[in-house]
Amino acid sequence: MQSLAQYSAAITQPPPADAALLRSGLVSARLFFHQRVYDSVGDVVHSDDAREWKTSGYYARPQMWLEMYDYKPGVTIREHGGAMELSPSGLPDIFSMLGKVCRDILDAVSFSLNLRSCVFTEIFDNMPLRSQEVSSSVLSACCHSRPSFEEAQQHGIASHDDSQLLMFSEQEQQIDKTLLTLVKSDRSGLYIKDFHGRWILVDGDLGPHDIVVYPGLALYQENPYL
Fold this sequence. Notes:
InterPro entries: IPNS-like_sf
Number of domains: 1
Structural class: alpha+beta
Protein name: Isopenicillin N synthase-like Fe(2+) 2OG dioxygenase domain-containing protein
Organism: Aegilops tauschii
Number of helices: 6
Order of helices and strands: HEHHEEEEHEHEEEEH
Distance between the termini: 8 Å
């Protein structure tokens, strides 16, 4: 709680079995992106669609040198070339595991602030989801600047500075609207802007099992004491 209040971020460590699942997921996601052939027409999604997570599946944001695969239970997966596309393996299990981690974190927040235990109940998804129900959460696998993606874009976009890779553009505010965001990466360099306007490197010295957690505006609105 002190870390969330002071730095707008915290570090959590899942059990060994869950940590192994995350590592496996990172490997699978890396293979998925690096084996994929980029389609400059069919794979691009408009920012409005990405912001609202209207689709589930692969899409690219070439202006940011970013590729993503979204897994959102209850949302139809985008088709690629008229056929259902393959996905990184293990996403349903990782989604479920991270959902439990989020619940534990929110329980800890409630306990620390002496809030009633059911304060977040209305926000949680039903487990499992009811028929035709769409999850309120999304699991995104992201890949920045893979070589073949850069080659496909080299004639359409100016070269970029690797030190300035962004997951979201400055004009977008979807991160701020979330309740919690959990990040597990294979490369450090995640900066988070706190409510004082300071950029803080939050994953510069993480252990192999560590996960970065940071709150969004929804959590601050629900808990003004954070």
